[in-house]
């Protein structure tokens, strides 16, 4: 390594040849100023040649900054025209071929021309006047500049202490501005602006402006750094203190490693989950409480159980819905036959989910008799949507705490069934099946149906309150499906919050399709048989439906099919030469014994004083016999058969109507005054109520008074008023299904229910003659005068 050092100092004024042509060295990423000693590393061939030439001459060079740092071989247009004249103070040659040069600038210069000589540039320059403010503002500007730089220096940690000099002793304003400009860390473009600013005050104001801006940025950085460091220090401090506490507890015999590990595990789980802010706050409070408790303390177990429950809940986990409508419809049809209303509602919801992300999950209430597939439909909906399913049975629940949970003050407290279900689902948007909602009771422990109001209200369930959790839980993404057999036992406030879909009983034709497509394959699998072992032809299935079951659903039908298959499975298991069994309708008596149904149950004529009505129970539609006898008395009306108040009032109103129109019906008034009438509704163990038996009661009493029999093939339903009007009723489909099952041929219905016939399957309408009536006189004419 060779070292060349200047031994004498020569100014360019001594040799005017400097201004007419001096070697040019372009520099990158730095702007050089006069009056400042600056080290440089020179690596490019042209620049090394220029340095060598300067050393052979007078050691003076011109330096200017490149506009674009990535250019390796800059042309004249790539260089700024304002640079500095400088003297080479020292050159050190490095083994890799580069030069380390120390220069000192002495003047700003303007480059007027470039000349390429021997592979380096020679620049012709014009010196620019130096400034030295003489105005009255000199002192103020100097003080402001020095103060601003000192503040900047204190804030900027990138400046080394060697860069700091005592600026207050510098009297030359040119030198002062150049030194400060070289120390400030600014973009090249802004430093070049300072270099090119020649007017004294303008240059000082520009430097001060840049300093003030940088000071603001540095102060903001310092604030951010302080906040981050404070947070980091706090975390480190807490960790250190927890470790100390752990050691102290271990020495005192109050703690162990597992306890501390559990606390650390809770904190780690919090950090890994995206929990709501209020949940994080509550967890931190409980964990801080736990760290202050001895592990053997009873309260410690309560707190740990609470923390684990909160961390186990799905606050941020969701499953993605399957929004393929064709696929969803296919899955629903695979699992259930019919039930188009429910399927359409599910598909509507999925279609809206596909178009909008702001939709709230519906809350459906499926009402229908047992065995029609309400519960299994909930599982099918979850499968079609790609969601998890949770099922809880509400039948017989009487304690509000079953829904809302117990407060933590109780021993063994736990969340309610809804929160427990969310934990087992592991996702925020499961299908939640609430079975038997019509059988929820209440007693001194509270009303569970009232607790369900919040969960099943779309406007409130975004913040469901469980007594155990004590923090709101969002149920708005849950798809609630409730099921029940009857609607009237569900409180009106709860009923109003749900979208009720009635699922009536199945027709015989629908039952056949369900049995053939779903029940038979399932029972084959349950009994270990195959289609090559047994066959149930269409006539046998329809005979089972008509002779061995009388129900709205298909639950008993499946039992009968299973009973046949079990007997065949026993034969197959005990015989080595088993052959395929084809079960015909004639074989059913061998497998199922005597048929339980008598098709002509409504076909027997018991004489005057009996008529057939239609009703709806929790098991579906049923025919209802009404019997009447008369006896000597004072015209009283006796009612038996466990009747409700509405039905009793209906019977009283009908009798009053008959008495007031005795002449029209050709009834002797004295008979009405001297005879008591006893109306009885058989199957007295079953409660009965409702107004829809009005016209059947009327027909029974008229039959008794006129001694005319009512055809057993006629059934009727409709509410009768005091003036003889026939009002519409509900459950028409269930009632017509019951009439068809019982062998009824003609059914009288209210005129206003004619529009509901569109909902009745066509095969049922073909088997029944439907007659509409508007008042009781129409009923009289149809039953007694049209024979």
In short:
The protein is of the alpha/beta class and 787 residues long.
Give an overview in words:
- The protein is an alpha/beta fold.
- It has 27 helices and 23 strands.
- The strands form 6 sheets. Strands 2-4-5-6-7 form a 5-stranded mixed beta barrel. Strands 9-10-11-8-12 form a 5-stranded parallel β-sheet, with helices on both faces.
- α26 links the parallel β22 (746-750) and β23 (769-773).
- α3 (138-155) packs parallel to α6 (200-252).
- The radius of gyration is 49 Å and the shape is elongated.
- The relative contact order is 0.05.
- Residues 1-10 have low confidence and may be disordered.
Topology at a glance:
Elements: E1 3-5, H1 17-20, E2 22-27, E3 37-42, H2 45-56, E4 60-65, E5 82-93, E6 99-117, E7 120-127, H3 138-155, H4 173-183, H5 188-196, H6 200-252, H7 257-272, H8 277-291, H9 298-312, H10 325-335, H11 340-355, E8 363-367, H12 374-385, E9 389-393, H13 401-404, H14 417-425, E10 431-435, H15 448-455, E11 479-484, H16 492-496, E12 499-502, H17 508-527, E13 534-535, H18 538-548, H19 555-574, E14 581-582, H20 588-592, E15 610-617, E16 620-632, E17 637-640, H21 645-660, H22 662-665, H23 669-674, E18 675-680, H24 694-706, E19 714-716, E20 719-720, E21 726-727, H25 732-741, E22 746-750, H26 762-767, E23 769-773, H27 776-785
Helix pairs in contact: 3-4, 3-6, 4-6, 7-8, 8-9, 10-11, 10-12, 17-18, 17-19, 21-24, 24-27
Mind summarizing the main beta sheet?
5 strands, mixed, barrel
Task: Classify the secondary structure makeup into a structural class.
Answer: alpha/beta
The total of helices stands at 27
Count of extended strands: 23
User: Roughly what percent helix?
Assistant: 40-55%
- Morphology call: elongated
Please state how the strands of the largest beta sheet are arranged side by side: 2-4-5-6-7
Task: Catalogue the unreliable spans.
Answer: 1-10
Distance between the termini: 135 Å
| Percent of sequence in beta strands | 15-25%
Mean pLDDT: 82
Rounded to an integer in angstroms, the radius of gyration calculated over CA atoms is 49 Å
